[in-house]
Predict the 3D structure of the following.
Amino acid sequence: MASFALEDCRPSISLEQAINNARQHVGNVQSAQLSQNRKTGECFYRVRGSEGTAVI
């Protein structure tokens, strides 16, 4: 089983940019976090809001 360190993530946009991009889709933003796909190692932001969740 492969292990990934989140420190290896080098996101191409900032957390603030991800929140601003997601706001129109998720409504009032409640939380946002940087995550990493275990299989591919790809990094992404998960933004949760009052109207749903966006993955950026």
Summary: Strands lie at 29-36, 43-49, 52-55. The chain has one domain: 13-55. The helical segments are 15-26. Residues 17 and 24 are 12 Å apart (CA to CA).
